[in-house]
Specification:
about 160 residues; elongated; seven-stranded antiparallel beta sheet; two-stranded antiparallel ribbon; alpha+beta
């Protein structure tokens, strides 16, 4: 199932209109329609708002492993999706903390604090795999965009 159909199915299951959802998350009804018709993809922040509007307590309740996330004519989005994050090695957050990723868990390198990747995703600034930067975002509200791999240089 694609993400747009999932959003529509979950909305209808709760007997909500697109207008109810748009009011609940603070975006236009047209935006909800674009998502449901796979013409646009919600940001991770918007997905969090959608989940809350549907009565979910976290992003972990969204079945990312069963969803295809596409935009328009079957073109895969260029964003690094939450469901791709567990296959990466580490992330650096906007707070300057680095988390080593172990599946769906992130372990903060200096303190050992453990967090789910779904909680880290929206705070992630840079994603690293095989000692290469593979995705980043400039601002917290931007999409996490895939980039051509850039080898990290060792600090001397």
């Amino acid at each position: 199932m694609d993400l747009g159909n999932w959003i529509k199915q979950e909305r209808e299951k709760r007997e909500l209109t697109q207008a109810h959802v748009s009011d609940g998350i603070g975006l236009s009804q047209g935006t909800i329609s674009l998502w449901e018709n796979n013409k646009s993809i919600p940001s991770i922040v918007d997905l969090y708002k959608i989940a809350a509007c549907f009565g979910m307590t976290s992003l972990q309740e969204i079945p990312f492993d069963k969803l295809e996330i596409q935009k328009g004519d079957g073109l895969k989005m260029e964003s690094l999706s939450l469901y791709e994050l567990p296959s990466c090695d580490s992330v650096k957050t906007f707070e300057g903390k680095t988390y080593e990723l172990k599946g769906f868990m992130g372990i903060e390198k200096s303190s050992g604090k453990v967090e789910y990747v779904s909680e880290l995703y929206y705070r992630t600034r840079t994603v690293v795999t095989n000692n290469q930067v593979v995705a980043k975002r400039k601002n917290e509200n931007d999409e996490l965009q895939k980039i051509r791999s850039k080898k990290l240089k060792a600090k001397s």
